[in-house]
Amino acid sequence: MTRKTGIVWQEIYMWHDTGTHAGVLPAGYPIQPGTHAENPETKRRFKNLLEVSGLYEQLVQIKARKATEEQILRVHVPDYINRLKELSATTGGDAGMLTPFGPGGYDIARLSAGGVIAAMDAVLAGTVDNAYALVRPPGHHAEPDMGKGFCLLANAAIAGRHALEGHGLERIAFVDWDVHHGNGTERIFWEDPRALTISIHQDRNFPPDTGDMRDIGEGAGEGFNINVPLPAGSGVGAYEAVYDRVVLPALRAYRPDLIIVPSGFDAGAHDPLGRMMMHSDGYRSLTRKLLSVADEVCAGRLVMCHEGGYNAPTVPFYGLAVMEELSGIRTDVDDPFLALFAGMAGQELQPHQDEVVRAAEQLLGQIK
Ligand SMILES: [Zn+2]
Question: What pLDDT is attached to residue 368?
Answer without folding.
Answer: 80
